[in-house]
Design goal:
heterodimer, A: about 260 residues, mainly alpha, MetI-like fold, about 80% helix, B: about 350 residues, alpha+beta, OB fold (Dihydrolipoamide Acetyltransferase, E2P), 2 domains, six-stranded mixed β-sheet, five-stranded antiparallel β-sheet, 21 strands
């Protein structure tokens, strides 16, 4: 069993090692067209070390992380609350669904020009963009999850004497968790993508801003460092929610 | 325990139903799919809207919420909460009633012991077998000490042995608790075994409400007799005890030996599906085996009805089409008739 696990880990890492090796070869021997703009992996790793050691990467990373955490947590919390309300109360669904349906298709970055005028270029701007980016999909998935809970569970809870609130929070919301997590997982990675775009356009700090500075200095190695950090953060955030889902829902996910 | 009365209750196909289910009675409802059986339970439980009135213990409960009707409901499909352990499932209703932790724990443990599921307490429903899930669902519905129990096909989708075992346990529990029970089943044998009265529903109408004996021997209309399978009824001219639990009965030229604890059998009802026909002599002892002549063969949808005369008696057998195809018989053929004892019904 342990051996199989180790073998799987090797198979997970091996393609990445091969990729890094090929990258190193292509970069070192100038095998890529436009050789000046393609540094080998070792140069990128060295720059990663420099940026970490002099605190530039850390400072920008913390700025971005803070914005993502505030935006994602507030957007998801609001999304879950509104989604529960819409899923549970038909009247709320009838009142809000047309509005949500109209606003949901707008790409989060589409709000940027409007928000720049309304909010100005400050910390609140990327947080608001991430809030919007998280809010709508989480509302949609939560509403769907609540509405899709089999009515028999509600009937069973009713006949057992549970109050409406008890039915909602002890039966319906837990059973809607798989859907809610689908929304959260989707938005966990998406929030980083949206953040970088906002930072690139309007904000002077953060990973996105560092990317733009590197571009103006033609520092391809720094750009690649930023892209690697973004890739890792997107994956990490998605993984955190996937693990949380497995921990919370995995125990009982095979419905009776 | 209270009685249940439905006065002019309607819901979709369910129109103007009037029905009284007596205190402590086990009232079994049978009928084809879509007859409105589950709707009847949902109306009594109050989990669906309806017109008309429902009285429990003489009190109108139309405005009373499901949780306050004193009803335990075992749903078809069970509806065990998948995110709660078995212990938490059973405790759910007790917590909803605001009972103290100690009282809840004791009650849950005693129910789990009664249902023999104590070893499953920390598992989740998806980890359980079909029979175990049914026990948990029953324990959960009994936990708040309901005055009425509604059981929607509690033994369905179980293998024959498990269903039989669960049924006998269920009968013991229901008799012990003396709880007014409405029990839905498709299984006529099960209905006959446990019912004080049987109701037959079809198309939202109550076609017949009667004791099991009346139900099986005197179907009141074609609809009921088609469902029951109009039995062969033999008038017994003589019956005598051979040994303890064994009786020999005579009806014309037919002489049968039956497992029975009484002595004075007047009528026997034999379902047509329980009459076996063969064109060659079946192996084994010649017990309850007769020779007869095929009078008429009628092909139905997936079965074939064969009317056989045995002396002055006429028996109607119903065979699966595949089984009939293996026989080489026609009207006038001599055949062997074997009566299966599985579902015989008697009138003393």
């Amino acid at each position: 069993m342990k051996k199989t696990g180790q073998l799987q880990a090797v198979w997970g890492v091996l393609p990445i090692l091969v990729f890094l090796f090929l990258w190193e070869i292509v970069g070192r021997f100038n095998l890529f067209p436009g050789q000046f703009f393609f540094p080998p992996f070792s140069s990128v790793a060295k720059e990663f070390y420099h940026l970490t050691a002099n605190g530039v990467l850390g400072k920008n990373f913390i700025s971005s992380l803070t914005r993502v955490l505030i935006g994602l947590i507030s957007g998801s919390t609001a999304g879950i609350a509104v989604g529960i309300f819409m899923g549970w109360k038909d009247i709320a669904n009838k009142a809000l669904n047309p509005i949500i349906s109209l606003l949901y298709p707008i790409p989060a970055l589409g709000w940027l020009p409007l928000l720049m005028l309304w909010i100005g270029i400050n910390e609140l701007l990327p947080i608001t963009i991430i809030f919007i980016c998280s809010f709508f999909p989480v509302v949609y998935n939560t509403t769907t999850g609540i509405k899709n809970v089999d009515r028999r569970y509600v009937y069973a809870a009713e006949t057992l004497g549970a109050s409406n609130m008890r039915i909602l929070f002890k039966v319906v919301v837990p059973l809607a968790l798989p859907n809610i997590f689908t929304g959260l997982k989707l938005e966990a990675g998406m929030s980083w993508r949206v953040l970088v775009a906002a930072e690139m356009v309007a904000i002077p700090t953060g990973i996105g801003a560092l990317l733009m500075q590197a571009e103006s200095l033609v520092r391809v190695d720094i750009i690649m460092v930023c892209l690697i950090v973004l890739s890792i953060m997107c994956l990490t955030f998605e993984k955190i929610f996937a693990l949380a889902e497995r921990y919370i829902v995995g125990k009982w996910s095979n419905y009776a | 325990m209270p009685d249940i009365r439905l006065a002019n209750v309607s819901k979709h196909i369910f129109r103007g139903i009037n029905l009284t289910i007596n205190d402590r009675e086990i009232f079994v409802v049978v009928g084809p799919t879509g007859a409105g059986k589950t709707t009847l339970l949902n109306i009594i439980a109050g989990v669906t809207h309806y017109s008309g009135s429902v009285f429990i213990g003489g009190i109108c409960v139309d405005k009373v919420s499901p949780g306050k009707r004193g009803v335990g409901y075992l749903f078809q499909g069970l509806a065990l909460f998948p995110h709660l352990t078995i212990e938490s499932n059973i405790a759910f209703g007790l917590k909803a009633l605001g009972m103290e932790e100690d009282v809840i724990k004791n009650r849950v443990v005693s129910l789990m012991e009664m249902m023999r599921i104590k070893h499953l307490s920390s598992r989740y429903p998806h980890m359980l077998s079909g029979g175990e899930k049914k026990r948990v669902a029953l324990a959960r519905s009994l936990a708040p000490s309901p005055q009425i129990l509604l059981l929607d096909e509690p033994t369905s989708s179980l293998d024959h042995q498990t269903a039989k075992y669960l049924r006998s346990e269920l009968i013991n529990i229901l008799r012990k608790l003396g709880i007014t029970t409405v029990y839905i089943t498709h299984d006529l044998r099960e209905a006959g075994e446990i019912a004080d009265r049987i109701a037959f529903m079809s198309g939202g109408k109550l076609e017949q409400v009667s004791t099991p004996k009346e139900f099986f021997f005197n179907p009141q209309n074609d609809c009921v007799s088609q469902f029951v399978g109009m039995p062969n009824i033999l008038e017994c001219t003589r019956s005598r005890i051979l040994a303890s639990g064994l009786v020999e009965v005579t009806s014309g030229e037919i002489r049968m030996i039956l497992p029975y604890d009484g002595s004075n059998i007047k009528k026997i009802a034999i379902p047509p599906e329980d009459i076996f026909i063969s064109d060659v002599m079946p192996p084994g002892p010649a017990l309850n085996r007769f020779t007869g002549v095929v009078e008429k063969i009628t092909e139905l949808n997936s079965t074939v009805r064969v009317r056989v005369s045995v002396g002055k008696n006429t028996l109607l057998a119903e065979l699966p089409e595949a089984a009939f195809d293996e026989l080489s018989i026609e009207e006038g053929s001599k055949v062997y008739v074997v009566i299966k004892l599985r579902r015989l019904r008697y009138v003393e």
